[in-house]
Design a protein that fits this description.
heterodimer; A: 264 residues; B: 446 residues; alpha/beta; Rossmann fold; Coagulation Factor XIII, Chain A, domain 1; 6-stranded mixed sheet; 10 helices; 27% helix
């Protein structure tokens, strides 16, 4: 495993070019190009804003105003997370020809999926920044330094899960179907469209088990809520857990590696 | 000389899943608690069993064998794409594998970007690719199209670009899997020149191919795989010779089977057992247009041909002969009643149905006197001067006016093998002679 990891570092050039290719190929031939990266989160944003401010007004407390901004803080990182997982769950099968014919470390593929979606996430940040300025959000420099830390924790966690899922899907094709349903459930089990404070006691304990909860709360605390970043202890714990998840995912991937060329 | 590639007692077992496994899913695996046992295959299939070989640095090593004999598996093991089930594979040097050209090209992006990504995937650095970029594009003859998306390329362009990248990886060991069939004649020559250059520079080449000519021309040593086992290795001429003999033997068996099948079906339809007649006149009447007719048998059967066999130079019966060999056709005939009006005939046809030769005893100025009981007719050919191919034979016994006793149409098949690649049907006995200032020498190796 250590050797595989070291080899992976040698292939960083490949990862880089593949991420670039992924982004280029995705928008080649489409008129609106990169704009499409924002359409899905913006659409979600519009729908939820409409539902919760026009259809069901007064169902959320004052602390969640402006609601659009609150939503955006959660939806943007969620899009990165869910798109990475659903893409990487099929990435090995879709690139079966490559795995069978060319010698290169296969973990490059799920990692590229995660990174390409991270770049999308970054492309969404200017829009988020525009929202923040428009609503005059209470930003503090001391809190904002945590932002890259949250991103890194999310990256490590997502990569670990992506490695695990991509390797398992090779053997059990239903993983991708299970995952697509699970992600819908997962979205609502994360305080993105509602704040954590609205969850009742038992529900809160359940939400606390969801790692993405802590990412969402962290983003919300530093970008949306005023006041100090009180969630940092959870974030650090999640960071440690994410590293464990990463190594677990990598371990499973490494163990199943030899079977890929025959099974995909 | 040191060893570049060594396989020691390598066995590769592929899993073959039955129906059960195909429909078993994660759910059923969890429910029935067979998660782990489901990962075990129902059946296994040894693609390679106990194969060992060594390739010295600078050698060109060929692997030949029928489809499914394990050639490509051997190559993938050397490339490290799959791991052996048992045994060891050791490789010393940078490998580039021409297993599938252009694997990993992305259709949406330009040839230029694909060259970079493909190159990096094959182990080059960005700087190395930049340095060789012009050479790659020039080799692929794609100067005008390099910035167009790869999806707009023709399959030939795609393959050429793939080949150009792979060959420019500048490996110590080049693995080639039957990829020389890409591109037109001119490009194939360019590829062969590139191989020759590789050899001159002392690089190692492992070549999997069906082209025996290529093997004899390029390889220093050859391994012949048959059903996952090494049948022979060593000197290319000897191994290729042994391989060709085995192929002939297999063809021999196949032809004998086909012949028997053709005759059986004709017999069956003639005796009316199947209830349907295979073709007009198959029973007793000749078809209206005899030269259009396919396999069949007709005639009044007062005289019957009961057996036909081919005998080659070695005196044993067979169906595969070498061009120029002495061959005879033997017919066992029976006269159910004594006859005085009879002519024996024979016709040779190539696979396109062209009559190569036809004659009979009447044309040969022989007149039937009397025939009763049984007899044998031999048509002896001193030299089977035909080019390589499959030939079919008509044999017949009929009256002088052409009314058939027994006509066997295209029921017998034989194959002519040849080591030269000349064309046509007939190979006249010949030699080349030169006078004046013309000098030639035999091509050996090259």
């Amino acid at each position: 495993m250590v050797r595989s990891l070291r080899q992976l570092v040698r292939y960083r050039g490949l990862i880089q070019s593949l991420v670039a290719r992924e982004l280029k190929a995705r928008y080649r031939g489409s008129v609106l190009g990169f704009f499409w990266s924002f359409v899905n989160p913006l659409l979600l944003l519009l729908i939820y804003s409409f539902v919760f401010t026009v259809v069901l007004p007064g169902t959320h407390p004052k602390e969640m105003e402006p609601y659009g901004l609150f939503l955006f803080c959660g939806i943007l990182p969620w899009s990165w997370f869910s798109a990475s997982l659903s893409e990487s769950s099929v990435v090995l099968i879709n690139n079966g020809n490559l795995i069978k014919k060319v010698l290169f470390p296969a973990e490059v593929l799920p990692i590229v999926s995660v990174l390409a979606n991270m770049v999308h996430f970054f492309f969404g940040l200017p829009i988020l920044a525009a929202f923040l300025i428009y609503y005059a959000a209470p930003l503090q420099a001391g809190e904002l330094v945590w932002f890259p830390v949250i991103v890194i924790v999310q990256l490590v966690l997502t990569t670990g899960l992506a490695l695990l899922l991509s390797a398992l899907t090779v053997h059990f094709r239903d993983v991708k179907d299970i995952l697509s349903n699970l992600l819908t459930f997962w979205f609502f089990a994360t305080p993105i469209i509602y704040p954590m404070t609205l969850a009742p006691g038992a529900g809160r304990r359940f939400l606390n088990l969801n790692p993405v909860t802590h990412l969402a709360i962290s983003y919300q605390e530093i970008l949306f809520y005023p006041g100090p970043f009180g969630h940092w202890k959870w974030l650090v714990a999640l960071g440690v857990a994410s590293i464990v998840v990463f190594f677990l995912g990598y371990f499973v991937f490494d163990r199943l590696r030899d079977s890929f060329a025959e099974e995909v | 000389m040191s060893t570049a590639i060594a396989l020691r007692d390598v066995t590769k077992i592929y899993r073959r899943y039955g129906r059960r496994r195909q429909f078993s899913t994660l759910k059923s695996a969890i429910l029935s608690g067979t998660m782990l046992s489901d990962l075990r295959p129902d059946e296994t299939f040894p693609a390679l069993s106990g194969v060992s070989f060594e390739v010295q640095k600078g050698q060109t090593y060929g692997i030949i064998g029928r489809n499914g004999s394990g050639k490509s598996t051997a190559l993938k093991l050397v490339a490290g794409i799959t791991k052996p089930t048992s045994g060891t594979v050791s490789v010393d040097g940078r490998i580039s594998a021409l297993i599938e050209l252009g694997a990993g090209f992305h259709p949406e992006i330009s040839g230029r970007e694909n060259v970079f990504i493909n190159g990096i995937m094959l182990g080059l650095s960005k700087r190395e690719i930049t340095r060789r970029f012009d050479e790659i594009v020039e080799f692929a003859e794609l100067e005008d199209f390099i910035d167009a998306p790869v999806k707009t390329y023709s399959s030939g362009m795609y393959m050429r670009l793939g080949f150009a990248v792979a060959i420019n990886v500048d490996p110590d060991i080049l693995l080639v899997d039957e990829v020389l069939a890409v591109g037109d004649e001119a490009f194939t020559h360019k590829c062969l020149d590139k191989f020759s250059e590789f050899r001159r520079r002392g690089k190692t080449v492992l070549l999997v191919t069906h082209s025996l000519g290529l093997v004899e021309r390029f390889c220093d040593e050859v391994l012949w795989l048959d059903a996952g086992r090494a049948r022979a290795d060593g000197d290319p001429r000897r191994v290729v010779g042994a391989y060709i003999t085995a192929v002939e033997q297999r063809e021999e068996r196949q032809l004998a089977q086909e012949d028997a099948k053709a005759r059986d079906s004709v017999e069956a339809s003639a005796s009316g057992e199947t209830g349907t007649t295979l073709e007009a006149g198959a029973k007793d009447e000749p078809p209206p247009d005899m030269f259009r007719a396919t396999e069949g048998r007709w005639g009044s059967r007062e005289v019957e041909i009961v057996g036909v066999r081919f005998v080659g130079e070695d005196g044993s019966g067979g169906h595969v002969f070498h061009s120029g060999e002495r061959v005879s056709v033997h017919m066992q005939v029976v006269a159910h009643e004594p006859v005085e009006d009879f002519v024996f005939g024979i016709g040779l046809f190539n696979a396109d149905g062209v009559c190569c030769y036809g004659t009979n005893t009447s044309i040969a100025e022989l007149v039937g006197d009397r025939f009763e009981g049984t007899g044998e007719v031999t048509f002896a050919i001193d030299g089977l001067d035909l080019t390589e191919g499959t030939y079919k034979v008509d044999v017949a016994v009929h009256k002088r006016d052409g009314v058939p006793y027994d006509y066997h149409r295209l029921l017998y098949t034989f194959r002519v093998k040849s080591r030269t690649k000349d064309v046509g049907i007939y190979r006249p006995r010949h030699r080349w002679e030169f006078g004046g200032g013309i000098r030639l020498r035999p091509r050996i190796g090259e």
